[in-house]
Amino acid sequence: MNTITPAKAAFGFDPKDDLNDLRMSEKATPLYEHVKRFVHETVAPMSEKFHKLGEGRADRWGYAPGQLELLEEAKNQAKKEGLWNFFLPDAETGEGLSNLDYAYIAVELGKVPLASEVMNCSAPDTGNMEVLERVGTPEQKERWLKPLLNGEIRSAFAMTEPDRASSDAKNVGMSAVLENGEWVINGEKYYISGAGDPRCKIMITMVKTSPDAPPSRQQSQILVPIDTAGVEILGPMHVFGEDDAPHGHMHIRFTNVRVPESNMLLGEGRGFEISQLRLGPGRIHHCMRSIGQAERALDLMVRRGLSREAFGRKIAWLGGNVEIISRARIDIEAMRLMVLKAAKAMDILGNREARVWVHMVKAMVPERVCQIIDQAIQMHGATGVSQWTPLSRMYTGQRTLRIADGPDEVHHLVVGRNEIRQYEGGGEDQTSGVVWRN
Amino acid sequence: MNTITPAKAAFGFDPKDDLNDLRMSEKATPLYEHVKRFVHETVAPMSEKFHKLGEGRADRWGYAPGQLELLEEAKNQAKKEGLWNFFLPDAETGEGLSNLDYAYIAVELGKVPLASEVMNCSAPDTGNMEVLERVGTPEQKERWLKPLLNGEIRSAFAMTEPDRASSDAKNVGMSAVLENGEWVINGEKYYISGAGDPRCKIMITMVKTSPDAPPSRQQSQILVPIDTAGVEILGPMHVFGEDDAPHGHMHIRFTNVRVPESNMLLGEGRGFEISQLRLGPGRIHHCMRSIGQAERALDLMVRRGLSREAFGRKIAWLGGNVEIISRARIDIEAMRLMVLKAAKAMDILGNREARVWVHMVKAMVPERVCQIIDQAIQMHGATGVSQWTPLSRMYTGQRTLRIADGPDEVHHLVVGRNEIRQYEGGGEDQTSGVVWRN
Amino acid sequence: MNTITPAKAAFGFDPKDDLNDLRMSEKATPLYEHVKRFVHETVAPMSEKFHKLGEGRADRWGYAPGQLELLEEAKNQAKKEGLWNFFLPDAETGEGLSNLDYAYIAVELGKVPLASEVMNCSAPDTGNMEVLERVGTPEQKERWLKPLLNGEIRSAFAMTEPDRASSDAKNVGMSAVLENGEWVINGEKYYISGAGDPRCKIMITMVKTSPDAPPSRQQSQILVPIDTAGVEILGPMHVFGEDDAPHGHMHIRFTNVRVPESNMLLGEGRGFEISQLRLGPGRIHHCMRSIGQAERALDLMVRRGLSREAFGRKIAWLGGNVEIISRARIDIEAMRLMVLKAAKAMDILGNREARVWVHMVKAMVPERVCQIIDQAIQMHGATGVSQWTPLSRMYTGQRTLRIADGPDEVHHLVVGRNEIRQYEGGGEDQTSGVVWRN
Amino acid sequence: MNTITPAKAAFGFDPKDDLNDLRMSEKATPLYEHVKRFVHETVAPMSEKFHKLGEGRADRWGYAPGQLELLEEAKNQAKKEGLWNFFLPDAETGEGLSNLDYAYIAVELGKVPLASEVMNCSAPDTGNMEVLERVGTPEQKERWLKPLLNGEIRSAFAMTEPDRASSDAKNVGMSAVLENGEWVINGEKYYISGAGDPRCKIMITMVKTSPDAPPSRQQSQILVPIDTAGVEILGPMHVFGEDDAPHGHMHIRFTNVRVPESNMLLGEGRGFEISQLRLGPGRIHHCMRSIGQAERALDLMVRRGLSREAFGRKIAWLGGNVEIISRARIDIEAMRLMVLKAAKAMDILGNREARVWVHMVKAMVPERVCQIIDQAIQMHGATGVSQWTPLSRMYTGQRTLRIADGPDEVHHLVVGRNEIRQYEGGGEDQTSGVVWRN
């Protein structure tokens, strides 16, 4: 007879469990509807003008005249309508959107790339604001959180290093040494997203402060203003040839960069602890948006398949194409349910307990979405790799997600380890250093 | 800008939609708990005795002395405790278990193979009883439904034919011709599951009555008592070498088999229509049980991986094994959510509208479960293919499911077609003849 | 008992068959060694200078001062050393390199991108020269073949159209109508590789001249000088954001383009016939180079895997990475043998009989090479998608090959059809319009 | 510029290298033709009679009257015609069939299962005879090799143990202790193929004699007559429910089994060394036969696809089936070339240097052949899993090969390690204990 193993129990397979209620709450409905309308009626037309203005601009790493004004106007409108900073729980009551509710809203945000910024809900600012809100000193909050919450400046998160395998979060090479009340920082970071934007003023920077401490207590996170002497932006990193100006994924060298001792976040050796805090609604953004990308790719695939003929039939009906379309639909629905369940798990079990769900969806979604976009490319023939469809851009974006915030392999290690652990008292642990940035 | 395509709407991606509430109902809780307890406390020990009695039996195609008595006793107990026929909605009020609730209960039924029969909820009787309940004449109900509901006899469903591609339900070769108030039936059927059981008395048989009618009106379903003259059981079909005696998947020849005109179900040419009725809770059984099999395979895989060492490490931690385990867990959770959503869709949208969900899970689940079992086999080395684990039996069972009730390819055709159809007024339709048996 | 089926025979499985001798010929050895040395000692250093000169150039769609001089110098050197046009069989004797010998040499050519051009063996000139050599009139040869053979001009092949599924070669939309002794051409072509180069003077253009003829007699190939009135280069098509200037994959509109009647190649309605002639050594280039790309990706993958550590081990040894490396090696060797066998088959059986082998390798190689490069990217983490490795460029190049010269699906259709055909007298033929360009 | 890496060199990519000449030798032609004729004219009809005689036999673990006589007659005929023991190189001159020539002959042997035995070329006898030939003492040869060479007895090779991961050949649990001039052996072995045959008289048994020696010097191989006291055959192991009587894959317990000290092969602690000797033509058998199985599966797949219709078309032409057929053909050809190349590598480089080629084909072939057979099953619908085609037997046979002689994973580890090693001075070695049995 088959017995119920611990594994099953661990995945909350209790029929009546609220984990299985994946509906958006009644409470969030008005906000959801409002965001949807605002994206459609305000952000979308603004966005079109914004991009038109930018097309001929002289400096790809800056903004064209009128662009920022347009953006500010929309941001002010969002503030006025109360669509501002809703990613962040109330500082005093702790109340805010549930992860599940936010997941549904993220789909709407994902429909126009500028929407998140207009409502001040865009990465990596969201994660940075959360961290400052939770562990910042009053001075740090006044100096950096306030302008961030007001949308006056932007920020970056400097974690990945060019000469280390970042899949292991213990692999931090950049050193920070305390000298005369100042942290002196040396090293290199790369793929610092958003650091190319002229409005980016502050970086939360992961450094190694305590090389002799136990592995998980060696790292710290420090606030480094981007204009500090010794911070040298070497150039933008490309993603399949694209530099993503003016946002940019910058390569930065730190040479004897000095910041006041008080720029330390939370305390020396507590960098890991802070990373755990970065587990908020932001995480769900990416996966819900990836699913949005997959929907779009499937939509383009079918439309193309019906608009071209070969060998006397529409190509959607040729060979294995119907099955490719079927598998895309099935997997999109399965991924959507998994992301919603992960969001719900965070709401009910808390970030710590729900962690394996988050790793599951991060391991599952971008890999499969890449494949669906790739199949859409194939259905388009040469047009699929061209500038005439968004597919190649979508592909490279999703391809990068299979590496960013931990490569697929690391997420599978965590999920597999979690499964195995239920059968042992302990065992080999290869992956204890896994953290994510967002 | 990405717009909401019809496809998305069609998949009910409305955040507040009850389709996304996958919890078992409060109402079903007592039954669920009762079944769970009954399986554990009554069926499981009975089952062990039953199989022991059968081991040395002279006639593999019959039962050993004492076996049927044991079974009857358990069935009486189930009746007494009210755990009987609960698969079937109330004949008058139409009330019954929702598909979602039944899906959760099916998991418990699946834990001991005899449990379904003990509670009179085993295929193909369930589907046959549903059909008789809905379309049977008073005489047909009296003669066949009553003893089936009482668990006095068993039944079979004769659809698949050896010389036709059964993936296309229009491919019925067996003819039935009306002569002097009797249907005269000629042809062959195979893989008639359950027809080997000495208690099997009646077959619902798919025949071609109207070869000149439009394709979907050519077929009929007729009641054929298994002891009718001309019904010749040629032998059992094997499944990877296994004959599954005494249940059996029989190969049957019909030579001038004559049954009264009144044995026709619903009416001449309405065989397809009846097939649509066979869309009940039974459908969800298989997929929920498949997931149970995957859970069991994963459980065995991990246990084995921790009990053997090679090259100085437990094999669960070697090479790609952790990732294999991770992918199994992720896909099991995704499949479970999909099956539950399909059940819920049937409850809310009705069988017709929910049809594509059912095809999605049938296309998705057995294929992936086969692969998980196969990986568990590989983790066991030679023991994995041996009689020392249930894995090879589990594999061949699941492998067969990829063919039974329509091969994977047909389900993908339906799902892909549904996706494509949303973009056209109509278009080529290759798969209109798809029906399932259960 | 298993009998020898026609299929086996058809694949030449005769143990002593010379098809199985995949060694380069003795005869070709001196040329092979010479090319190898020339690429290493002459082309490689020239190439470095060439690219340095081009870096700052004002016009991306032209050449920087000194670039073409450098190239001409190397070409003259190649001519002087007898390393010129060796892709082409002797016009009179028909003697030339075998496909197998050329395949081995192509590997060496592939090691430095400029090498082919320096020895006048680069696509699409090679195919165009072959066609002119075989079917050109004396006037056509004098006017276009001579300067091509001398490396004085370059050429293009205009086949693909933006609004047709080019997988079906019958799908030619561009019309050519004879008026007063001139062909008047109207339509659009895109992905015309090489048409961006200022030295490109002539295009062989696929047109539809006879819409009422049987499908395979409707098309013709016509010589169109690129500076003819009405030829409008609309712009470069991108490949994953890359425009490949100044070579370019151009989008060209033809509006009432008039060329003399004598520009027709071979004869009206014989466009297909000419396409069959384009089956020469050029075809093998791509696949041998793809394998070279896979070798390089594997090399980079292993080096990276040994240069980074995570969780206390070099990442090459982590998780499933060793198996990924193993599978890459195995598949590279298998692909190499298949390409060599295809080349040998062309040598022994002739292009027509060997056709299915060519389709087999075209269907097999680019798909798998894409995957190997993708795995190398993953092993590199963020660096893998950056400008710091050639991997993203390699990927997009190979990805495009899965579409160019017929998408994978079409090659599989031809191979599968060939297999099925051996069992039938005829049957449905979906793919008779398949031709390749090169 | 791409440079030639050591890896490429290591794979002998020298165009003129004889490694690339995969033709059977002229010398072997007469034998090849003779075997082919003999299998067709003599073995095939005998085989049919043999199986007919066996059908009703009382003892499944013995032979029916007349069966062995029939076999002996055919064996005598083979001897008379000189078709006997040709797997074995001449004891004095060392001359014999090359591996490549033998590979081609193995295809013919594989066409009728009894053919190998009739010509005394069947496993595991071939490997055992080779070992005895090379390392046996005169007494051992007289006692065991002679009757084996004469086909008077049969033998087994006892290596795998039920409670160890046999993927690591150092995992030998069975102990042999020297007491008073006798080895006393205790432990269990399973999957001892051929030990069920009443003619099996001797087992070469892998034991651990020196637990304190370095890992690769702890094992020894000892001759154990199957009728020695203490050898207890517990029963046959099943393979997907099949026991393969009377050959059998036996589970055997050794309890204080005593054999003379002189039964040791080669010397104490030299068990590994002997395993290296077992690298002979036998290895190639399996892979060539697997390819034969794939050919047969593809043949059945296409025939079925042309004999059934659904949705108005033959199913071979439906959906992705043409592509499935194409991929099967492509992979069969690629596998065939790889196996031939591995055979040639053994001939030219010697077993030691060619080792990685052998691991490559063992990792590559059975996995893919399983998949092709599985696809043939799917094309057959329910008939595919039934007793009406050989497919389910073929599947389980190939599935087992993915485990036997080392699971796929171990072969990939060896191949991947070999690739990585070319870049390092040494590095982590997980797999040094890999040996094969055959």
From TrEMBL, chains A, B, C, D:
Residues 30-152 form the Acyl-CoA dehydrogenase/oxidase N-terminal domain. InterPro entries: Acyl-CoA_dehydrogenase (IPR050741), Acyl-CoA_Oxase/DH_mid-dom (IPR006091), Acyl-CoA_Oxase/DH_mid-dom_sf (IPR046373), AcylCo_DH-like_C (IPR036250), AcylCo_DH/oxidase_C (IPR009075), AcylCoA_DH/ox_N (IPR013786), AcylCoA_DH/ox_N_sf (IPR037069), AcylCoA_DH/oxidase_NM_dom_sf (IPR009100). GO terms for cellular component: cytoplasm. SUPFAM superfamilies: Acyl-CoA dehydrogenase C-terminal domain-like (SSF47203), Acyl-CoA dehydrogenase NM domain-like (SSF56645). One of its GO terms (biological process) is fatty acid beta-oxidation using acyl-CoA dehydrogenase. Keywords: FAD, Flavoprotein, Oxidoreductase. The keyword Zinc-finger does not apply. Residues 269-418 form the Acyl-CoA dehydrogenase/oxidase C-terminal domain. Pfam families: Acyl-CoA_dh_1 (PF00441), Acyl-CoA_dh_M (PF02770), Acyl-CoA_dh_N (PF02771). The keyword Signal does not apply. GO terms for molecular function: acyl-CoA dehydrogenase activity; flavin adenine dinucleotide binding. Residues 156-252 form the Acyl-CoA oxidase/dehydrogenase middle domain. Its cofactor is FAD. Belongs to the acyl-CoA dehydrogenase family. Homodimer. This is Acyl-CoA dehydrogenase.
